[in-house]
């Protein structure tokens, strides 16, 4: 079985770990390095720092899941695994060349961008393989990530900041939608608890319908919209070409992608 070393078990690392364990990946095949153990499930080998990794543990995949801002301090301690393991970074912004600098030019590096729905095996991860990555290593990464959702590979690393802005950060946009729908419902007179229940169930139900349906998102929207009805009145506001959701989302995605570029160094 593939041996996994997970470096950083915060919000994203723990979401992936939860998905793997639920999917039947053996806890015995995982070692977690995490100085703050609160989010690490019982039964998984946990160490606080790289020197404490058991000498007998030889990982096939080292997942780098710490914040981009601390990556340069954290990564060199794992250079000893270069040559035997593939490094799978999930950090926003950090390019493959950054890891080659810190781990050696020959290190096998996959840059990936997952998202937190991995915790319920509904994630999507986009991967880009560096030059040292063998077909076998690529296939091991594919299997691991596929256990927690969909996987797509791209050749052009330059697209990763845009990927991050759409699917990496995207769950936050959807949760915000649920938040503001609830607030709007309360503003319209609903009890706050009922408004929150309606917003949550509607976002989750619409998401599930989108997942299961063969129709496009646009068609599913049209299916809700009776001519001259209530939805059309709302969409006239939300689809305003100047200040509706379209231009607002474009601004948001551009801002996220720019931030990714800033985190590169
Ligand atoms: N949160 C998200 O939705 C997503 C995050 N990412 C990426 O995942 C990475 C982690 O992000 P989050 O999980 O959100 O952050 P987080 O702050 O929740 O998790 C980072 C974890 O790293 C641990 N850590 C710090 N120093 C360490 C060290 N020396 N060794 C081992 N662990 C150490 C921290 O204690 C923390 O638990 C980032 O690079 C981020 O760009 C990627 C996709 C989505
Ligand atoms: O906000 C961030 O920087 C990370 C990357 C994508 C989602 N969370």
Structure write-up:
One of its GO terms (biological process) is L-proline biosynthetic process. This protein is 46% helix and 14% strand. The protein is an alpha/beta fold and 265 residues long. It has 2 domains: 4-163, Rossmann fold (3-Layer(aba) Sandwich), CATH 3.40.50.720; 170-262, ProC C-terminal domain-like (ProC C-terminal domain-like fold). α6 (170-187) crosses α7. The longest helix has 21 residues, at 192-212. The model has no long low-confidence stretch (mean pLDDT 96). 1,4-dihydronicotinamide adenine dinucleotide (NAI) is lined by residues 7-13, 33-36, 65-68, 70, 74, 90-92, 113-116, 168.
Order of helices and strands: EHEEEHEHEEHEHHHHHH
Task: Tell me the strand order in the biggest sheet.
Answer: 3-2-1-4-5-6-7-8
Mean pLDDT, rounded to whole units? 96
Bound molecules: 1,4-dihydronicotinamide adenine dinucleotide, (2S)-3,4-dihydro-2H-pyrrole-2-carboxylic acid
Q: Quick one: overall form?
A: elongated
Structural class: alpha/beta
Distance between the termini: 35 Å
Instruction: Assign the CATH topology of the largest domain.
Output: Rossmann fold
Quickly count the helices: 10
Classified in CATH, the superfamily of the largest domain is: NAD(P)-binding Rossmann-like Domain
CATH class of the largest domain: Alpha Beta
What's the Cα radius of gyration?
21 Å
Domain Pyrroline-5-carboxylate reductase catalytic N-terminal: 3-92
Protein name: Pyrroline-5-carboxylate reductase
EC number: 1.5.1.2
GO molecular function, one term: pyrroline-5-carboxylate reductase activity
